[in-house]
Design goal:
By secondary structure, chain B is α+β, with helices and mostly antiparallel strands. Helix content of chain B is 32%, strand content 16%. The chains are: A mainly alpha, B alpha+beta, C alpha/beta.
Chain lengths: 58, 358, 92
């Protein structure tokens, strides 16, 4: 699950309410909506790096 | 899963210290609340004949439920009297519908607040205000019912500002956004009648209101001139979307329509037809979306939707229009929907009568 | 003075995470986008990195018609059955 930095507290709160307070998720730079393709690709790379340990349980 | 018993807090007996206690618990909207003392809550619950653990609203995002009990606690905190409680209950029963999507409209950066419009004989019975200072401040019923709505969203559903309520700039309506429809001098059928309720039944309409735009016009003296200025407000680049609208006409403006014999349907048609921006204009500010334009002009398009233009809403029925406010002043208002499309649609529910004392 | 809590009486939930993957090689990816601007594009870019570097395949793209409501149960059930991991987003 990917969110941008301003929504980090939102993600933590909903994870807590749904019973998974330590749920790990990916954080990328805000915003996404107005990004150019090169900017999206840069954010995607950062997301990939954070996703690896989450998916593999490292 | 069965609900747990309502928790009781041992707070100081001193009233001022109890008010501070509520602040420390994080229960307030930033203003002091009435401490929800158990006897006051029980008196509030007597305004609904159903068991206290009756669930009246469910939050899909968190799976949290709103019971009558929790609603009563927050109603006491807001300063409601028991006779106000049935309005609050009906409002949440309306907002409970999927089509309203109270989570989205509350959590969004768009910053809306649920607007409650109460219609029917209950308005006078519980002393609501449909007149001067319609949107406040000053009237206990209007202020506290609206405030209780916010306290419930915050305390029961954990929609906390900055955390799960991500409104970029907030909205003054998030303190309280509750009005009564004016019947005195209203030439049109009341909302509760058009909504199909039995004679004598009052209703509350809920709408995810994204803001408040005053529409001033003291020189216009035809329906087209008055509604033209309203339509212009509806079509401003910051507001024009496929979402619904609420328009509250001041009595001065409504008089002009009534004298010309205009019906509600004529007013809605006029507003929808005129509240539009050209495709070029929408593109010039970066707000044109192909799929939104296509949606408005597809096989189900309303006959008044003009090719080459983006209108506000999908049709005249997307515009709720009625009357409210004081006798003097050419000041009507337009309230845009939080939803830029169909993510939240206004809902209404009947208000149950106050239980008769046995 | 005894005060009632204004909070919900719904019991606290307990939930569990899916077990970690043993390997990403050839894993099946689902994309669940929330309809926000650039959501699909962003999630696609992330998925493509897994495709290029681990031989993953994108099995399905699901779109939420309502960004602020949970995805419909049938969507989630199908994702759980057909993919090894989902790439999704929250908020704007």
């Amino acid at each position: 699950m990917i969110c941008t930095q301003p929504f980090e507290v939102t993600a933590k709160n909903i994870a807590r309410v749904l019973g998974l307070p330590d749920y790990p998720f990916v954080k990328v730079q805000h915003p996404i909506g107005s990004c150019t393709l090169p900017e999206l690709k840069a954010r995607a790379e950062k997301a990939y790096e954070q996703a690896l340990p989450i998916l593999l349980g490292a | 899963m069965a609900a747990v018993a309502p928790r009781i807090h041992e707070a100081p007996d001193d009233l001022l210290a109890a008010i501070d206690y509520c602040y420390e618990q994080g229960w307030t909207d930033g203003l002091p609340v009435v401490p929800p003392q158990v006897d006051r809550v029980k008196a509030m619950l007597a305004a609904d004949a159903r068991p206290a653990d009756t669930v009246i609203c469910h939050h899909p995002a968190t799976t949290l439920d709103l019971s009558l009990h929790a609603a009563a606690v927050n109603a006491v905190m807001a300063g409601c009297l028991p006779e106000h409680f049935p309005v609050l209950v009906a409002a949440f029963e309306a907002m409970n519908r999927t089509e309203f999507n109270f989570h989205g409209s509350t959590a969004s950066t768009g910053g809306s607040a649920p607007l409650l419009v109460v219609s029917g004989p209950l308005v006078d019975e519980i002393g609501m205000n449909a007149d001067v200072n319609l949107f406040g401040p000053g009237n206990r019923a209007n202020s506290t019912i609206g405030r209780a709505t916010r306290l419930i969203l915050r305390n029961v559903f954990q929609m906390l500002p900055g955390i799960s309520d991500k409104s970029t700039q907030g909205n003054p309506g998030k303190y309280s956004f509750c009005i009564a429809e004016r019947s005195r001098g209203n030439p049109w059928p009341l909302l509760c009648e058009t909504q199909g309720y039995a004679k004598g039944t009052s209703s509350v309409t809920t709408f995810a209101g994204g803001g408040f735009c005053n529409v001033e016009n003291h020189g216009g003296n035809t329906p087209e001139q008055i509604l033209g200025s309203v339509a212009d407000a509806m079509a401003n680049y910051g507001c024009i979307t496929l979402g619904q609208s609420v328009v509250i006409l001041a009595p001065e403006h409504m008089r002009i329509l009534a004298d010309a014999g205009w019906t509600r349907a004529q007013a809605q048609d006029c507003l929808f037809g005129q509240a539009k921006r050209s495709v070029e204009g929408m593109k010039s500010v970066g707000k044109f979306r192909d799929r939104e334009y296509d949606r408005q002009h597809d096989a189900d398009a309303h006959r008044l939707a003009e090719p080459g233009f983006v209108h506000r809403g999908l049709g005249p029925d997307d515009i709720l229009i009625t009357m409210g406010g004081g006798d003097a002043g050419g000041h009507s208002c337009f309230i845009p929907s939080w939803s830029r499309g169909r993510s939240s649609l206004m809902q209404h529910a009947p208000i149950a009568p106050f239980p008769k004392k046995s | 003075m005894q005060l009632y809590s204004p909070m919900s009486t719904t019991p606290k939930r307990k939930a569990f995470r899916a077990p970690p993957l043993a390997s990403l090689d050839g894993a099946r990816i689902g994309i669940l986008e929330n309809g926000k601007l650039n959501a699909e594009e962003m999630l696609n870019e992330v998925a493509q990195l897994f495709v290029e570097r681990h031989g993953c395949t994108v099995r399905m793209l699901s779109s939420k018609s309502n960004a602020s409501a949970p995805a419909p149960s049938p969507t989630l059930t199908k994702l759980a059955q057909d993919v090894d991991f989902v790439v999704t987003g929250l908020g704007d």
